[in-house]
Each structure stands twice: as C-alpha cells, then as structure tokens.
Amino acid sequence: DTEVTQTPKHLVMGMTNKKSLKCEQHMGHRAMYWYKQKAKKPPELMFVYSYEKLSINESVPSRFSPECPNSSLLNLHLHALQPEDSALYLCASSQDRGVNTIYFGEGSWLTVV
Amino acid sequence: AQRVTQPEKLLSVFKGAPVELKCNYSYSGSPELFWYVQYSRQRLQLLLRHISRESIKGFTADLNKGETSFHLKKPFAQEEDSAMYYCAFPGNYGQNFVFGPGTRLSVLP
Lengths: 113, 109
Fold this sequence. Notes:
- The complex is a heterodimer of chains A (113) and B (109).
- Chain A is an all-beta fold.
- Chain A is built from no helices and 11 strands.
- In chain A, the strands form 2 sheets. In chain A, strands 2, 4, 5, 6, 9, 10 and 11 form a 7-stranded mixed beta sheet that branches. Chain A has a 4-stranded antiparallel beta sheet with strand order 1-3-8-7, with no helix packed on it.
- In chain B, strands 2, 5, 6, 9, 10 and 11 form a 6-stranded mixed beta sheet that branches. In chain B, strands 3-8-7 form a 3-stranded antiparallel beta sheet, with no helix packed on it.
- Chain B starts with a strand and ends with a strand.
- By secondary structure, chain B is an all-beta fold.
- The A-B interface holds A 4, 31, 33, 40-43, 45, 48, 50, 55-56, 90, 94, 96, 98-99, 101-107 and B 32, 34, 42-46, 49, 86, 90-91, 93-102.
C-alpha cells in the first residue's frame, strides 16, 4: 500500500461548525504533514508530526488543531473557520530520516460558508 | 533566503515539440532539488529528484550549479504531460518541502 488516504474529499462547513479532516497511511512512515493549497498556488506547510509528536507548526491559527492518534493516522480539527480558509488541504507522509520523498493524499476540498 | 523560482506561470507547446520548464534556485550549501507534478484531479506526486538522476516519463533534469538552475526537460511532449509542475527543495526543518510557484504545462494537439 503506497497511498495516503484522505477523508472527506469535499467538506462544506459554516463558520460556527466543528469538523475534522482525516488522513491515513500504511507505509510505515513516521513523519506526517498537513499542507494547505489555495487555487493556482503551491502547497504551503501547516504542520509536521514526527514520531507522533508535533515538530513543526508554521504559525497556523489555533482554529486549526492537528492530532496524531497513532503512527498511521493524522487528523485536522477545524473550528470557527473563516471563508478565507477555504482551500485544498493536503496530507502527506514520509520516512522520518532526513530528506525523503513525500507522498501526498488527494486532498480534502474545504469550503467555509 | 533559500527559495526556488519558476519564471513561467503557463507554458504551451505542441505535441511532439521539446519542452523545458525552468527552475532557478537560491540556496546555500549543496542543493537537493525535486520536481513534483500535479495532474488534473490527481494527487501531487514526485516526478524526479536530482540526486537519483533518473528519467521518469521521459523527463530529465540536470542540476547546473553555475547557473543555479534545475530545469525540467523532455524532448517530445505528449498531451498527457499537461499538468502543473512544481520545483521543490527541503525546507529549513529538513523534513518539509518548499514548493516554487509552479508552471502549468499545456500540450496542444
């Protein structure tokens, strides 16, 4: 299994809602990532988990809350989002040894209304 | 600051024509550079990395330290090569990647 699986593929939520994005990989990777991609822009790093511990937070607003329940799962909890948070959210994983190929999921399209 | 630039937002070529997607880097130390591709409705995926010197789907890229470039080339473009291409390098933390702005390649029939 060489895939990173993300659910849901599409999510529409109101500004007062609480929702979660989920990500799963079974490649034995110990680093997992959340990236945000706006239309016609490159992906931008949000968070990095290494061995299930948060190692990088790129000054992301607290309305985004990551969680890594185990080495295969990564969640992104969403609360009180703004319309400008609408984007494609990409999960990725890699072996946690220096610079390695990152494998991306197909992403979750989020629309905040 | 370390970064990569991709000067062309859009590149259109005819099928069978050569294609070159430009990437220039500003990088201290020994650069490790990658090309990622994003086909329509598909996930972002690694196309090639300079250290492996592989040719994937007919694409090659050579690191030119004198010109600080890592241009992606293919001698004969195919319609299925139409996609978004990102040049990327490892970020400050060593685990993350930083992507260039991207070039959309459109191969016309």
